[in-house]
Each structure stands twice: as C-alpha cells, then as structure tokens.
From TrEMBL:
<keyword id="KW-0456">Lyase</keyword>
<dbReference type="InterPro" id="IPR014748">
    <property type="entry name" value="Enoyl-CoA_hydra_C"/>
</dbReference>
<keyword id="KW-0413">Isomerase</keyword>
<dbReference type="GO" id="GO:0004300">
    <property type="term" value="F:enoyl-CoA hydratase activity"/>
</dbReference>
<dbReference type="GO" id="GO:0006635">
    <property type="term" value="P:fatty acid beta-oxidation"/>
</dbReference>
<keyword id="KW-0276">Fatty acid metabolism</keyword>
<keyword id="KW-0443">Lipid metabolism</keyword>
<comment type="similarity">
    <text>Belongs to the enoyl-CoA hydratase/isomerase family.</text>
</comment>
<comment type="function">
    <text>Could possibly oxidize fatty acids using specific components.</text>
</comment>
<protein>
    <recommendedName>
        <fullName>enoyl-CoA hydratase</fullName>
        <ecNumber>4.2.1.17</ecNumber>
    </recommendedName>
</protein>
<dbReference type="GO" id="GO:0016853">
    <property type="term" value="F:isomerase activity"/>
</dbReference>
<dbReference type="InterPro" id="IPR001753">
    <property type="entry name" value="Enoyl-CoA_hydra/iso"/>
</dbReference>
<dbReference type="InterPro" id="IPR029045">
    <property type="entry name" value="ClpP/crotonase-like_dom_sf"/>
</dbReference>
<dbReference type="InterPro" id="IPR018376">
    <property type="entry name" value="Enoyl-CoA_hyd/isom_CS"/>
</dbReference>
<dbReference type="Pfam" id="PF00378">
    <property type="entry name" value="ECH_1"/>
</dbReference>
Amino acid sequence: MTYESILVEQHDAVTLITINRPQALNALNSQVLAELIAAFAAFEADPSQGCAVLTGAGDKAFAAGADIKEMADKPASDFFNEDFFAGWTSHLVKSTRKPWIAAVNGFALGGGCELAMMADFIIAADTARFGQPEIKLGVAPGMGGSQRLTRAVGKAKAMDMCLTGRMMDAAEAERSGLVSRIVPLAGLIDEALKAAQTIAAMPPMAAKVNKEMVNVAFETTLDQGLLFERRAFQILTATEDKAEGMKAFVEKRPGVWQGK
Ligand code: CAA
C-alpha cells in the first residue's frame, strides 16, 4: 500500500512508522488514522517484524492532537454515529498484539498525547511536551486521555493537566511515570530503534504474553491478574522457545527462536 500521510520503513525486524504532516504539527486527521490502521495491520501480520516504533516527522511535534480543522464544522450527530475516535483503540491497541513504542519528539498534545499513551511505552526526547488541552477548545479528551493518563500519572496530575490544559515537559513526564526514558532529541530514533530491536530479538510468543500480562494489570483485580499471570506463564512453559531458551542459558549461548 502507498501512504500519503505516514512513512513506513523496515529496519531489520523493526517497523518505523512516522506521521508525516509536519506542516500541521502531525495533527491526526482521518487519513492519518486510516493509514495508521493499515500500517499497524501490516506490521502485525508480517512474521519478519517483531516490534514497531511510532514517531512524528520534524523536530517540533509527535502529534499536536486530533485535527481541529477537520472537527471544527462537524456536527455532533456525525461524531456520535461514526463513533468518532473508536478506531484508534480498536486497531492500534486491541488488534496489535506485538509490542510497539512511541518515540515522542516534541509536542504530544490532545490526541497526540493519547496516541503516545496507546503505545506499550514511551521514549521521550528532552524536548517533548505532553498535554491534554482539549478543555480550551470547549471539549475534553476523546481518545483515552482521561483514562490512560490517570492510570499512568494518578489523579492529581491527570486532573491538573485536563483542567488547566497545561503542558508537562519531558522531565516531569518521566518523574510522573508517563515515559520510560528521556534522551536527547538527536538520539531519539536510534534509542527507540535499539530498544525495539532488543524486543524484536525476544521469543515472539513470550513478547506478546509479557505485553498482555502488564495490560491485564489495568483491567482486573490483583487476584485475577495474578491468576492470569500464572496460567500464561504455565502455557509458555509448553513452547519450543521455552525449551530452547533454558537450554541455551545452560549451554551459555544465545537462543534461536521458532516463535512456537
Ligand atoms: N489540528 C489542526 N492543525 C493544527 C493542530 C491541530 N491539532 N495543531 C497545530 N496545527 C497547525 C496550525 O493550525 C498551523 O497551521 P497553519 O500554518 O496552516 O496555520 C500549524 O499546525 C503550526 O501550528 P502553530 O502555528 O499553532 O504553531 P505554534 O508553534 O505557534 O504552536 C502549538 C504550537 C502550541 C502546539 C499549537 O499549534 C497548538 O496549540 N495546537 C493545538 C493543540 C491542541 O489543542 N490539541 C488538541 C486537539 S483536540 C483533540 O486532540 C481531541 C482529542 O481528545 C482526540
């Protein structure tokens, strides 16, 4: 498929996807969504690919939000009837079992912050700025900001961000648990690709199961989560990659994975 609003490159086992509307600070319009859905589906279906990195083109923005110009004249009935924004979570989160990382290279505002939070983790440039400024437009987060941000940073920070619309810099975002690491902007993509290569080199079933386990922690009670974890662990012990991984450890050599 050819894309107009995103760029897709393969770096060995890692798919690098770049939102490519720098003139609009990579604002997320319906074309970006449609192309991201296609790119994530292709990544998920390609057995040669083990991890993806999502970033924004240019030095200024990861994504400055949903496209305000696209939404400005849209009637409420269209937002409702299209279940506007539902596609982001269903395709990029629920249908993507392989891990992916957001490499946030500047503004991640509104839908941009929400998109970054759909990733399995966020690596931020030292110039990154996060925010949920929708209140200033007379609306509120619509792609998960009130839910994922609250789970990531707690009620106090999430309320502060949503109610004042202020931005959080990279240092505050790391302190608050929103991002896993901060790197200088110039090294961001290298660092994210390196982390993604590490993940892509892991046994693929174990990578998917580790991702599922951590995500279950947000959806369930501690007892049910611990049960899910034990059962999933026990199922992994039946895989060929478990036999190979433990044998390779004893023989002091790297494992060679079959993905089964
Ligand atoms: N939608 C559409 N266009 C956008 C945009 C957005 N979210 N953000 C920036 N742009 C466009 C600007 O309109 C401008 O285009 P023109 O040159 O054609 O005028 C271009 O990108 C550059 O932006 P600025 O001139 O504003 O750049 P700046 O450096 O002065 O300011 C900024 C940067 C503070 C990020 C500012 O652009 C801004 O506040 N953007 C909007 C942020 C926002 O409100 N995001 C939330 C959107 S709603 C949402 O996301 C809902 C949801 O929950 C999913």
